Amino acid sequence: MVDIQLSRILNFLRFPLIVAVIFMHCDLRINNPELNNHTVFNVLMYVSFLFITQAVPIFFFISGYLFFKE
């Protein structure tokens, strides 16, 4: 039962983590002075940067867990 739930969680996380790794390797910073002055834009960029930078460590954690599981 636990393996089925873990499999569903990993299948759910797979796509967002793949997209985050792709975004990490792309330079998506917007160099627009008009947008840099908006607080909402700065908050969104900060939150997305935090998520994107955690994608690779999450991949390593999941793969290490699955490697040493059995």
Topology:
Layout lengths: L1 H24 L7 H4 L2 H15 L1 H14 L2
How would you describe this structure in keywords?
70 residues, mainly alpha, 0% strand
Total domain modules: 1
Please mark out the parts with pLDDT under 50 across 5 or more consecutive residues, or reply none: none
- Biggest sheet, open or closed, and with what strands and sense? none
Average pLDDT: 81
Amino- and carboxy-terminal Cα gap: 16 Å
Judging from the principal axes of the Cα atoms, what is the shape? elongated
* String of helices and strands: HHHH
| SS content category | mainly alpha
Care to count the β-strands?
Answer: 0
Output the number of helix runs: 4
Helix content: over 70%
Which radius of gyration do the C-alpha atoms yield?
16 Å
Strand content: under 5%
How would you describe the overall organization of this protein?
The protein is an all-alpha fold and 70 residues long. It has one domain. The radius of gyration is 16 Å and the shape is elongated. The longest helix has 24 residues. Helix 1 packs across helix 3. The model has no long low-confidence stretch (mean pLDDT 81).
Short description:
The chain contains 4 helices and no strands. With 70 residues, it is mostly helical. The chain is elongated and about 55 Å long.
